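[step 3/7] inverse_fold.run input=structure_tokens len=457
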């Protein structure tokens, strides 16, 4: 898979019918293969200038039969996606036409590309680093405009720049530590390794936090709406959805199952789960619903504990609140029915949570609630336009690992341990960061990452 000297070919557009479909080649034989198959209008095959689009036909050299009318471009290395010679043939986007052209390229000596192999070549040839290569996949898979912006920034190298800065500082600290093992103190320049480690720890903390935030943009957050029957959970779900989806009913306990809906809170996908209510019941179906409620409570990124703000809190409210407190998830206490005269004793129901007054009926307070929800989910104020730097769980784990080693190194340094003992952890942190950008990524890691790509990318 890591050979670079052969020429690969793939259909780079999705299979199916479309206006056009693209067959892409990369490798040293790309131009020769194109020249053997392509008849440009009014030109000899040898006069194809680089980075120019030519109209003509792909012709089977064995039979002289035209396979398709195409636009073809030859792009000479290194100003190409893979930094190798690249050819793209824009065919008609039908399965038969594309297969025919692909088959002719294979017969002419290209071999089928593995998933992600074009991007892998871009990485191996040093045009992009590993984090950028992963961003290509994120761009393709982005489902919201916010996650697309995160991916495009990462593709542009924003994350890589930050990671390199931290890594460089650690490499310099490491060089100093290693020098002090081999040479007497007075022969090497002074350096405050403690300051290096402290700065690296700060930066890594921030990167891990950014990644955590970015993962939310990608995977979405789970919000559980809980509360005793009839406080207005279904109505609140509808108000958040701004359309009537869940069933609203005045009969207590009739939302027996969990209802899930997805909304976008300023680009962050949020899955809302309206639960059957917690508390106690003898009814078998309600008990089942309650079990589900507890389960969605346990895995929620945020819990909305709904109470009826127009009457005093009662035992049932406190019982649900106890379940919420026990789950230990971030929560907002929502005092609903604010269109009615309010009773002011609800904050005590869940003292640890901020209180939001809303009317699911009139929509009053819903915007402020959404604001609060976003702040809690993102663990900080939602700055418009400030998309997270990172969004990949793999990167988050590596930042955390690097942080652990930097903290261990700082502790060893503070304890006055030998330089070589400090150096071990610094070196581990450097390796972890190198796995983000790819300097220290082994074949196994590359295989795992690139196998997730589609063929032709
Ligand atoms: P759930 O059992 O907690 O899901 O509660 P529902 O959403 O089914 O609402 C129960 C009852 O309270 C219904 O009759 C709703 O119309 C009513 N209700 C819900 N929200 C409000 C509100 O903000 N103000 C008023 N006045 N009534 C509400």
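[step 3/7] decode complete -> sequence:
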């Amino acid at each position: 898979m890591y050979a670079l000297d052969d020429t690969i070919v793939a259909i780079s557009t999705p299979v199916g019918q479309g206006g056009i479909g693209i067959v892409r080649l990369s490798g040293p034989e790309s131009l020769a293969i194109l020249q053997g198959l392509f008849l440009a209008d009014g030109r000899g095959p040898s006069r194809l200038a680089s980075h120019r689009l030519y109209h003509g036909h792909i012709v089977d050299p064995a039979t002289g039969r035209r396979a398709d009318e195409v636009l073809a471009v030859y792009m000479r290395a290194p100003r190409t996606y893979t930094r190798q010679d690249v050819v793209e043939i824009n065919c008609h986007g039908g399965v038969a036409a594309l297969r025919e052209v692909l088959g002719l390229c294979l017969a002419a000596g290209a071999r089928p590309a593995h998933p992600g192999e074009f991007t892998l070549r871009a990485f191996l040839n040093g045009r992009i680093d590993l984090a950028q290569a992963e961003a290509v996949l994120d761009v393709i898979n982005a489902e919201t405009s916010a996650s697309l912006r995160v991916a495009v920034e990462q593709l542009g190298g924003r994350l890589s720049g930050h990671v390199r800065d931290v890594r460089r500082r650690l490499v310099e600290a490491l060089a100093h530590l290693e020098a002090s093992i081999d040479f007497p103190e007075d022969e090497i320049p002074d350096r405050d390794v403690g300051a290096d480690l402290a700065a690296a720890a700060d930066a890594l903390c921030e990167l891990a936090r950014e990644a955590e935030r970015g993962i939310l943009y990608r995977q979405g957050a789970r919000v559980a709406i809980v509360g005793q029957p009839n406080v207005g959970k279904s109505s609140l779900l509808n108000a958040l959805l701004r359309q009537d989806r869940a069933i609203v009913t005045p009969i207590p306990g009739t939302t027996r199952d969990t209802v899930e809906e997805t909304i976008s809170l300023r680009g962050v996908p949020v899955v809302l789960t309206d639960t059957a209510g917690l508390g106690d019941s003898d009814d078998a179906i309600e008990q089942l619903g309650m079990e589900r409620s507890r389960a969605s409570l346990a895995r929620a990124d945020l819990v909305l504990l709904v109470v009826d703000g127009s009457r005093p809190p009662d035992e049932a409210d406190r019982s649900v609140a106890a379940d919420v407190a026990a789950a230990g998830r971030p929560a907002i206490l929502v005092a609903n029915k604010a269109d009615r005269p309010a009773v002011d004793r609800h904050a005590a129901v869940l003292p640890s949570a901020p209180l939001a007054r809303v009317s699911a009926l009139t929509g009053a307070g819903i915007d402020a609630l959404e604001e609060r929800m976003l702040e809690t989910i993102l663990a900080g104020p939602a700055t418009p336009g400030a998309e997270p730097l990172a969004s990949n769980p793999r990167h988050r784990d590596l930042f955390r690992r690097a942080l652990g080693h930097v903290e261990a190194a700082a502790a060893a340094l503070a304890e006055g341990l030998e330089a070589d003992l400090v150096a071990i952890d610094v070196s581990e942190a450097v390796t972890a960061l190198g796995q983000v950008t790819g300097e220290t990524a082994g074949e196994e890691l590359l295989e795992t990452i690139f196998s997730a790509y589609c063929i032709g990318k």
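[step 4/7] annotate
The longest strand covers residues 66-75.
Residues 227, 229-235, 248-250, 255, 336-337, 339-340, 359-361 surround guanosine-5'-diphosphate (CB under 6 Å).
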